[in-house]
Amino acid sequence: MSNAPTAGYDVVKDINFTGGFPTSKDLAPSIVFLVAYIVTVPLLCYRLARREDRAILLLRPTIFVGARIAMLVLRIVMTKSSYGVGTLIAELVLTSVGYLFLIDPYVESWKRHVQGSVPRAIRPYWVKPLAFSLWVLLFICIIVTTISGALVSRAFDSQSWLTAIRGLRHAAFILSLAVVLLLAFVIIFTHFYFALSVSRLLHLLIPTCCLIVVAVFRVVQSFTTNPDAPVRSVAAFYVLQLFFEFVAYMFIISVSLPKWYPGDVTHTQGSRTTNARDLESGLHGDTGKETQGYSQSEPQQPRWTDRLLIVRLFKYISNRRR
């Protein structure tokens, strides 16, 4: 590996970082993904500049794109010339931290989806606290991952520092996996519990599943000690992480987030309210059809999901809180 860092190679190799040491095999896929991300920048800028599409949520994917472009540029440079440990550490941090900024937009979009579709009278109290808790966990992951990257130089001093760095990375990877798994669960649960929009379900769930694939890959790869294992190959990194990240990123910028997820809306008591499916049918011109919104005067018919034990448990907890 002629392009590997000349100093501290063995120490850094023991960290088993995601993506491994860039070699000539990384050149072509790095260029492909770099071009793909650069092509999407005009659309992202359009979303940020257009008043109807502008949202604070877009700041996270903007940071993600910046991190990915910088990481890919570094990997391309590292495949063509020798590099030091400092450059490798920068690439390591960008690879690990960038992914975390892609999760938060879906947490916030899910929260806004529930708030904009379910009247306050029957809205579960735990939506906002849960979304905030997931945000806190992601923030902790970002801090821990950044610290572990900054401490890599300490690994040259003793084996204990190397063990601590690996432990921090493992903790951050496992925690991020727990976040996306919980996010997928609540997306599915609230959809069936409140009969929300199918299109919003797919828009949230498909990229969340992509993020789960990335999270599982990161965890498995970090715990795999065999350097020849398939999960530590170049193809695994570019397919199981970069490709699925790109799919999840495209779902964010493909729609106008303020229009799809407007957030909390005012529902008038005693009048028929509109849920996400009503809005969806209205967008398709079915305004003349009778809709089935949540209303105190017109209770909904029981659904098969109401018989599920976990649904009944959540209903019981919500009723006790009210």
TrEMBL record:
<feature type="transmembrane region" description="Helical">
    <location>
        <begin position="172"/>
        <end position="194"/>
    </location>
</feature>
<keyword id="KW-1133">Transmembrane helix</keyword>
<protein>
    <submittedName>
        <fullName>Uncharacterized protein</fullName>
    </submittedName>
</protein>
<feature type="transmembrane region" description="Helical">
    <location>
        <begin position="57"/>
        <end position="77"/>
    </location>
</feature>
<keyword id="KW-0472">Membrane</keyword>
<feature type="transmembrane region" description="Helical">
    <location>
        <begin position="235"/>
        <end position="257"/>
    </location>
</feature>
<feature type="transmembrane region" description="Helical">
    <location>
        <begin position="201"/>
        <end position="223"/>
    </location>
</feature>
<feature type="region of interest" description="Disordered">
    <location>
        <begin position="267"/>
        <end position="301"/>
    </location>
</feature>
<feature type="compositionally biased region" description="Polar residues">
    <location>
        <begin position="290"/>
        <end position="301"/>
    </location>
</feature>
<feature type="transmembrane region" description="Helical">
    <location>
        <begin position="83"/>
        <end position="102"/>
    </location>
</feature>
<feature type="compositionally biased region" description="Basic and acidic residues">
    <location>
        <begin position="275"/>
        <end position="289"/>
    </location>
</feature>
<feature type="transmembrane region" description="Helical">
    <location>
        <begin position="130"/>
        <end position="152"/>
    </location>
</feature>
<feature type="transmembrane region" description="Helical">
    <location>
        <begin position="27"/>
        <end position="45"/>
    </location>
</feature>
<keyword id="KW-0812">Transmembrane</keyword>
